[in-house]
Amino acid sequence: MNQMTALVPAADIVEPTRRPHRLRINSDNRAIVGGTSILSVIFLVALAAPLIAPFDPRAIDLPARLLPWSGEHLLGTDMLGRDNFSRIIYGARVSLLIGFFSALISSILGTVIGIVSASSRISDAIVMRILDGVMSIPATLLAIALMAIAGGSVSNVVLAVTIVETPRCARLARGLMLSLRERPYVEAAIAAGSGRVKLLVRHLLPGLMAPLAVQGAFIWAAAMLIEAALSFIGAGVPPSTPTWGNMIAESKGLWQLKPSLIFMPAIALSITILGVNLLGEGLRRAFDVKGH
């Protein structure tokens, strides 16, 4: 699972002598346009789920189980007679929620930890050894262990993914801080008498925002995959909650009889992750992360 999180090398993130570029979004940035378009549609569908979904995603109707696609049940029903179309729509809410908040909290915590680590050699040695220890454990295995301790719920999945992904953001922020403080414009600000707070807010944090935003997008995608993996093995969100991972897990014994029960939520998950990854790539180009 570690390989699913695309880390951007710190050396490639900020130009060696100039201030970081501002965000530049235009119609030529096809990645960010495509990613934003995909995610906008999925967000709208998730928000309008009560209006779009024709059935209660948790409603069990045993006489109607495993019905084929029809005008009444657009994607048929599952082994408990629940409407698959409604469950896929509501499943978008869980995946987007877990992915977004995991990425947001990981980025914030990682930035704080990275700044603290880069502030002195003693703190750097202590913090980085702790982070190395956490990162030495495979992400999925660590998430499973944390869920076994905390129990299955949406908030606990967010907590587990945040703990798994925060060290990566922290290492990125720490590397950027060490690089940025050697830049001529930072040295000039120090020579001009800028205090620590002013130096951090005006000169260092702006240099962290672009690469961390890019990294956050890839963490978002990884978080949705981790949630699906946890749900698939029964260690994530409770089975009563409609999620794409739960739908795949519940239908794995019926893949030969009715493969659409697995393929449709898997396709929905894949399209969402594609949108997030396109957004991340678009942000990289828009922030001119590599200096092009």
According to DSSP, the number of beta strands is 0
Q: Tell me, rounded to a whole number, the average pLDDT.
A: 81
Q: Give the distance, in angstroms, between the N- and C-terminal Cα atoms.
A: 30 Å
Beta content: under 5%
- Helical stretch tally: 10
User: Rg to the nearest angstrom?
Assistant: 22 Å
Please mark out the parts with pLDDT under 50 across 5 or more consecutive residues, or reply none. 1-23
Helix content: 55-70%
What kind of sheet is the major sheet?
Answer: none
Examine the secondary-structure arrangement and name the CATH architecture. Orthogonal Bundle
Summing up helix and strand content along with how strands pair, one would put the structural category as mainly alpha
Verbal overview:
With 292 residues, the chain is mainly α. It has one domain: MetI-like (MetI-like fold, Orthogonal Bundle), CATH 1.10.3720. The protein is 66% helix and 0% strand. It contains ten helices and no strands.
Features of this protein?
disordered N terminus; 292 residues; mainly alpha; MetI-like fold
